[in-house]
Amino acid sequence: MCGIVGYVGPREVLPLILQGLKTLEYRGYDSAGIVILGEDLSLFKRQGKINALEKDLQGLHLDGRTGIGHTRWATHGAPTELNAHPHLDCDGNLAVIHNGIIENYLQLKAELLRLGHHFRSETDTEVIPHLIEEQLKSQSSLLGATLAASAQMEGAFALAVVSKRFPNQIVAVRRESPLVLGVGKGENFLASDIPALLPYTRDILILNNNEAALIEESGIQLFTLEGKALQRQPLSIDWDAKMAERGGYEHYMLKEIHEQPQALRETMVGHIDWDHSLVLLPEFPDDLLTGARRLYISACGTAYHAGIAGKYLIESLAGLPVEVEIASEFRYRRTPFVEGSLGLVISQSGETMDTLAALKRFKEQGIPTLAITNVQGSSVCREADHIFYTKAGPEIAVASTKAYLTQVLSLILLAVKLSQLKGQPQPELVCELKRIPLLAERVLAELEKTVQEYANRMRFLDDYFILGRGLDFASALEGALKLKEISYVHCEAYAAGELKHGPLALVTQGKQVCILATQRNLFAKTLSNLKEVKARGAEVLALSFPDGNELEADEIWSLPPTLDPLGPLLSMIPLQLFAYYMAKEKGCDIDQPRNLAKSVTVE
Ligand code: M6R
Q1: Mean pLDDT (whole number) for 138-157
Q2: 303 lines ligand 1 (CB under 6 A)
Q3: 300 in ligand 1 pocket by Cβ < 6 Å?
Q4: Were both Cys, which of 3, 26, 342, 453 would link to 598 (CB 3.0–4.6 Å)?
């Protein structure tokens, strides 16, 4: 959470920092601030979104070759201008921006107050400039003082520090919270995430955990937190700047929903031998998969829902027992692992704090780890033993869409691969995968207008049920999360067979219910559940294949027929569109829903 941008070089700094912040706004958007370092240190802050700050700064041209900017997701202190970053030392000569939480800030603050420092905000962050100020009394470099101050701090942080005493330098430090560095010619960059750097460079140095960087025009030097110099070559990132733009769509979310057929195609590239109808998964070694007796999946939010789909898929196709658990729970439980356990984490960003903790827990237990992620060089990639990259491209909208579909696809590939290794290839399923991107395009073309009209009719909806069995239950959970987070409509996802054990009491005349029926082996059972809610007066929308027309629903959205294990790849698309158009009907902030942030790097 929180976005950090920094630049040292000859370009006009202010617009560059503003542009970077806009790209990172998905990380947090309750206030923003910028420092430009020229002869003076100029500080600008504003409560609210970046465009409010941009309006304040319109027409302003500042000299200076160094700047840092921050977009905040508040943890300590209300989202006010005073609490917005950057924060300054006592004299206003040194500025710091921070992502993360300084856990011992109260003790540090008490000591700094005793030493005579003045504080202006309620944040944990403000101790940092004062700690560095204190260190600069004895240290001769900004890097040395920042490292010494960092050693006093407990918790997770990504920092960028500038000082009038050290013009044209940014010191960056990383402990847990992400930071990436962009390597240019005669200019260098810093950001919380890669998309902010793509307009300028694709040569990216990932700052690892417990590392620092000194960023100057002439180059970037990397150090350990003990000050030992490090050498590392930049990665060349295969995303281009266009991928992180809205490309004519009104919102990133809609663009990303429409990118799904292509994201599915790209994720399959190199992973299927079409001639022999076999899945290739070189990322995950065969002997590891063959030796697995149980797979533990851990993830958060949407990625957790992909994990649930993965459980159904892997158990039914490959007969391998799978446990799935929310990472924030898993990390603190004492799970009794069985011999032959394999740990799998799923994370779009690869930076989610709880998912990283789950990954570390697997490692502490000596369990080999696999990861499915979308971001090269992310923390998950550095920690996991084996990585499979989804090829969704940059996902900017807070609501995850194309990442989910590619995660489910990756788990289908894993399930088929495990099945192959047991001597049970799945040629029919592999062949059908080839058609899936085309079918996803058909769903978009055939259903978008219908979904939009339904959302218009439902515009006063404030409570909804989505029901499904088997894989449809996983999709129901994800569909309900989309509706909640984007349109703020309360929605419960239920395993359709579980409804009568309690929630059916909520189903009365006129209640709106959606039933997913893409699993043919469960079709008759789902039909009974539909009848149960109809009998209580519910109005039912059903998502099914054309042969599901016998469902006595008030409205049916027909999906192009496909094999049951692939159903979720199609049924999710109208559910995402429904959340999108409901949010539009309600005038919600679709790409940046209230209280949320894209990358959850705090607990
Ligand atoms: O980057 P990750 O996949 O680890 O993120 C996990 C969740 O925070 C994320 O999926 C969240 O639930 C999305 N906002 C859902 O749309």
Answers
A1: 95
A2: yes
A3: yes
A4: 26
What per-residue confidence (pLDDT) applies to 549?
60
Question: Tens digit of pLDDT for each residue in 19-28?
Answer: 999 988 877 7
Does domain 448-590 sit in CATH 3.30.200.20?
A: no
Mean pLDDT of the chain: 93
Measured from the Cα of 299, ligand 1's closest atom is 4
**Any atom of ligand 1 within 6 Å of the Cβ of 349:** yes
- More confident: 102 or 305: 305
The rounded Å distance from CA 74 to ligand 1 centre is 18
| DSSP one-letter code for 486 | I
d(CA 440, CA 43): 48
Bin 469: left if φ > 0, else alpha if -120 < ψ < 50, else beta: beta
Q: How do residues 579-588 score in pLDDT, each as one tens digit? A: 999 999 999 9
Cis peptide before 427 (omega within 30 of 0): no
Mutate to test the pocket of ligand 1, among 192, 325, 352 (most ligand atoms within 8 A of CB): 352
Total residue count of the chain as it appears in this document: 603
Per-residue pLDDT band for 375 (boundaries 50, 70, 90) equals confident
Parts of the chain belonging to CATH 3.40.50.10490: 246-434, 448-590
Under DSSP, is residue 20 helix (H, G, I), strand (E, B) or coil? Answer: helix
- CATH homologous superfamily of 3-244 equals Aminohydrolase, N-terminal nucleophile (Ntn) domain (3.60.20.10)
Q: Specify the CATH architecture of the domain 246-434.
A: 3-Layer(aba) Sandwich (3.40)
User: Where does CATH 3.60.20.10 sit in the chain?
Assistant: 3-244
Q: Would you say the pTM of this structure is higher than 0.90?
A: no
Cis omega (within 30 of 0) for bond into 86: yes
